[in-house]
Design goal:
heterodimer, A: 295 residues, mainly alpha, MetI-like fold, two-stranded antiparallel sheet, 70% helix, 1% strand, B: 448 residues, alpha/beta, 18 helices, 14% strand
């Protein structure tokens, strides 16, 4: 008995960094955040219980609606685009060609550039006067390149383009997934006379589907939390016509600029709910589309 | 636990304990026995070094006399850090924040009223220009003390004035004249008529720092009457119309393209410094950048024009010292503040920061030693009876964002100006109403 209790003590002690961290840095703040989402809490005064007023206010808040719509559009465009581009690049990088390691490094290196630095680089790249993209467009005969960052029509597109800069991470995961596909499957498909596109459609994609599912879920979560890039590129402004004002930016503004921590917490819980629902939907859809190999 | 486990635990914890005991201890040794004052401010670089020199002098003289040691910490986002520290019950003893936060924090009870402490410390408030103390007051009480003040003026390029046939000794006197001058000073690429190579004046928020909300004030208006937002008012409509008129005359698309290509204001790519922007609304620090990036620039400084010559409005702002509620060493903090607010000390700081003097009668060396040749003009502007500061709104942060949206909407002509103004008024009024409701509920709760 004494030995069991000693073992329990030792176990608790050695796992203390995790469960203490979980308790103090995650569970308690989560519980507190849920509580203050039902309060008016400007941080400088104690929380004042307001019931569901914060959630009710969201219904009438036009800026909240705008940020929801912006974030949904960004997620709807960037997630499929990132998925397609990442799979395409992974397929190319999986070919055994000379300099394969170099090409793989080229795709992955941008992901280790800090987000803020990447934002600064892209602000220069997209400059309508002296940016390389504008110069390229002029050379191709486009007399007036778009005001990428200053036009409500182009700002979202520019951000989606910039977000592709970080495609290296999913590419690496897809590449690992591609290398796990048994060669016998391709051989069997070839023997059946399947062309390359058919092999991709009937062998590669189904075999890769668990990896696609993982990456799509991660991308959906990332897209609904987009913050650093637009915050950097529009210099903390909401962007032209609030075209690049996203959910997390509005949440941050409410918490730290407007001192409405209760309202910001309500926003955070709604954000969590949206992400949970979308993740659930992805899982639901994936039931018929994802193929797990038998052990 | 077995003996082996105990030994392993001790071996693993020992380096951490040794690091805590003998690791980095901070670069400035503190003499034992002194009361340590934690002072947080936003200044780093040259500005931070200037403040650190004053702190060092205090620690070596008055601080030693009174057994007080000031520990100066330069922090980014000092207002947010102060807020979080105050919420956690461990605020600094002194904080240096921007004046626009004073109403917000004071109204929520985060700042200590200072009249009594100032009187006890013998700080001669009568020596300061009234505007700098007005900015420190909220709801009739003094919640802050001036540190480095400034006014905002019109900088204009004298060479470009001469080239355009304008008198470089007669800057524009009214807002209408400013537009006329700006149109005359705007030049287009001869081969591409829609490409501006030199712009007369800009209203781009990227070039104007934090003052996109300010234009109605130059049309005899305001954003706040003390109780409610007054954005949807004739002055705002006149100001937005003025912006649209100017943009229409130079071509909005061309102006947007020019502004989108401008570099950062504190760099050599600042269009005013590289001679491609003729006039700009800026503070005295522009002279510091001019000295570094464009030493040959021939520029003038004047009061920014208002709608009439009779009523010249002047925007005045300052960094301030505050004592957060919950500070543990108020008496000692005031000893340092009364040292820092001595005229010679504070003017030394203002000079090093390139700002104006907050005193009614600046000291004899202030202008002589100041590196900004135009500093007298900024100083005189602060004495204007029509000088105004940030609107004393407890919800100014939201008004700031909403007016930014309004001005950007007008600049991009993406909605009619009247609609943008109405939307902004509706949103800010809603914010104010909600804030007032919460404040009433809190007051009612306290009374019960």
């Amino acid at each position: 008995m004494a030995r069991r209790s000693n073992n329990l003590l030792a176990g608790l002690l050695w796992t203390a960094p995790w469960w203490l961290g979980f308790l103090l840095l995650l569970a308690l703040p989560l519980a507190f955040s849920l509580y203050i989402s039902f309060c008016d809490y400007p941080m400088l005064q104690p929380p004042l219980w307001v019931g569901g007023a914060n959630y009710a206010e969201l219904v009438h808040d036009g800026v909240f609606h705008k940020t929801i719509s912006n974030t949904a559009v960004f997620a709807a465009v960037s997630v499929p685009l990132t998925t397609v581009v990442a799979i395409g690049l992974a397929l190319l990088l999986n070919l055994s060609v000379k300099g394969q390691a170099f090409f793989r490094a080229c795709i992955f290196v941008p992901t280790i550039v800090p987000m803020v630095a990447a934002g600064a680089i892209w602000m220069w790249m997209l400059n309508p006067d002296f940016g390389p993209i504008a110069n390229l467009m002029r050379a191709m005969g486009v007399d007036r390149p778009p005001l990428w960052l200053d036009s409500p029509d182009w700002a979202m597109g520019a951000l989606v383009l910039v977000s592709l800069w970080f495609v290296g991470s999913p590419v690496v995961i897809y590449l690992a997934g591609l290398q796990e596909i048994p060669e016998e499957l391709y051989e069997a498909a070839r023997m059946d006379g399947a062309s390359a596109p058919r092999r991709f459609w009937h062998v590669t994609l189904p075999s890769l589907s668990p990896v696609v599912l993982f990456n799509v879920i991660i991308s959906v979560i990332g897209a609904w939390q987009v913050f650093a890039l637009p915050y950097m590129m529009w210099r903390t402004r909401p962007g032209p016509d609030r075209a690049t004002y996203f959910y997390s930016m509005y949440l941050f503004d409410n918490a730290f600029n407007y001192l409405k921590m209760g309202y910001a917490s309500a926003l955070a819980w709604i954000q969590l709910l949206i992400i949970l629902v979308l993740t659930g939907l992805v899982f639901l859809v994936s039931r018929r589309m994802v193929h797990y190999r038998a052990a | 636990m077995t003996v082996r486990s105990w030994i392993l635990t001790i071996v693993l914890l020992a380096p951490a304990a040794l690091l805590l005991a003998f690791g980095p201890q901070g670069t400035r040794p503190r003499p034992g026995g002194r009361t340590v004052i934690r002072y947080w401010d936003k200044w780093t670089g040259v500005e931070g070094a200037a403040m650190q020199r004053i702190v060092d002098r205090f620690n070596a003289t008055v601080g030693a006399e009174h057994n007080v040691w000031v520990d100066y910490n330069a922090l980014g986002d000092v207002d947010k850090r102060m807020l979080i520290a105050a919420a956690g019950g461990d605020p600094p003893d002194i904080a240096g924040i921007f004046d626009r936060y004073v109403p917000t924090y004071a109204d929520r009870g985060a700042l200590l009223p200072l009249e009594e402490f100032v009187a006890q410390a013998g700080i001669p408030l009568a020596d300061f220009k009234p505007i700098w103390l007005d900015i420190c007051r909220y709801d009739g009480r003094l919640y802050a003390l001036p540190s480095t003040p400034y006014t905002i003026a019109l900088f204009y390029n004298r060479r470009l004035f001469r080239e355009a046939g304008l008198d470089p000794d007669r800057p524009p006197q009214t807002t209408a004249e400013l537009i006329d001058y700006a149109v005359r000073l705007t030049k287009f690429d001869p081969s591409k008529k829609d490409r501006i190579t030199q712009l007369g004046f800009t209203l781009s928020p990227a070039m104007l720092g934090w003052w996109h909300w300010i234009w109605p004030y130059f049309f005899d208006g305001s954003l706040w009457d003390g109780q409610r937002a007054t954005i949807d008012a004739p002055a705002t409509h006149a100001a937005m119309q003025w912006i649209q008129d100017f943009r229409n005359r130079v071509g909005n698309e061309a102006a947007l393209r020019f502004e989108a290509s401008c570099g950062a204001i504190d760099s050599a790519q600042n269009p005013f410094l590289n001679g491609s922007l003729a006039m700009v609304f800026q503070g005295p620090w522009l002279a510091n950048w001019a000295r570094v990036y464009a030493p040959e620039l021939d520029y003038g400084v004047a009061a920014f024009p208002s709608v009439t010559t009779e009523r010249r409005h002047v925007f005045a702002s300052e960094d301030v010292f505050v004592i957060p509620r919950g500070a543990k060493h108020i008496h000692e903090a005031m000893i340092f503040l009364s040292f820092a607010l001595r005229q010679d000390t504070l003017e030394e700081l203002c000079r090093e920061h390139g700002k104006t003097s907050p005193f009614l009668k600046p000291g004899p060396d202030f202008f002589r030693l100041h590196q900004n040749p135009k500093i007298r003009i900024f100083d005189e502007l602060a004495s204007s009876p029509l000088a105004f500061g940030y609107p004393p709104m407890p919800t100014f942060s939201e008004a700031w964002t909403e007016t930014l949206y309004m001005v950007e909407t007008v600049l991009r002509a993406s909605r009619p100006a009247a609609e943008a103004i109405r939307m902004t008024q509706t949103k800010v009024s809603q914010v104010v109403r909600q804030y007032d409701e919460m404040s009433s509920r809190r007051r009612a709760g306290k009374q019960q």
